[in-house]
Design goal:
Length: 208
């Protein structure tokens, strides 16, 4: 490739040097990165910080994610994926719809308690992580609606209240995700989901 007279050749684009890591090591590193981000947020934490704390090279970390942005996305997906699996395991131990719903929302609240205010603020303001959060909150709303429908079919919940409750769940989760409900109530995301569980448990049951 030729260059105009007197012009210096373009410098090749540099990509972070990555070190191949085995599956178990990668899983362990991803768990550690996730814990750091959940505790402190990810905006202020650098890859140098992570490497120093984990006593590994930056090249090793880049074996988990090729850039800091990829590390952030991987950690956020890991958090939601592992928590969703944990919650579903808890729900599977119950058969009564009201217990399933309460357990599900309490599980969501427990998961959200792992989020520091710094991580939550970073997550909802950074496009890729905000989209991950949006997809997971939408799925949470769908799961609650599925359980409400199951309770109606089983005769446990009042059908006249089911449609209303379903819309309340969807709106409440959306309001938590957008931050509107948190601002207006002063509650955290975890506290909001816990309150929602209590409202659903008491509002959907047949009057005794």
């Amino acid at each position: 490739m030729t260059h105009p007279a007197g012009a210096a050749p373009s410098a090749p684009l540099k990509t972070p040097r990555r070190r191949r890591v085995d599956t178990a090591r990668r899983a362990d590193l991803l768990e550690q990165v996730t814990d750091v981000f959940l505790a402190e947020g990810f905006t202020a934490v650098t890859v140098d910080d992570l490497a120093r704390r984990m006593r590994c090279s930056k090249a090793t970390l880049y074996g988990v994610g090729a850039t800091k942005e990829q590390l952030v996305v991987a950690a956020t997906k890991h958090f939601f994926g592992t928590e969703a699996a944990r919650i579903e395991r808890m729900v599977a131990t119950f058969s009564e719809p009201q217990e399933m719903i309460t357990t599900y929302l309490e599980g969501v609240a427990q998961a959200m308690r792992r989020n520091s205010p710094a991580f939550y603020a970073d997550m909802v303001t950074y496009g890729p992580t905000a989209e991950i959060y949006r997809r997971n909150t939408a799925r949470a709303a769908e799961r609650i609606l599925e359980m409400i429908d199951g309770g109606v079919r089983a005769g446990v919940f009042r059908a006249t209240n089911a449609a209303f409750a379903a819309q309340v769940v969807a709106l409440a989760i959306e309001a938590v995700q957008s931050g509107t409900l948190l601002e207006r109530t002063g509650l955290s995301a975890a506290e909001s989901f816990a309150e929602l569980a209590d409202l659903l448990f008491n509002g959907l049951r047949h009057a005794s």
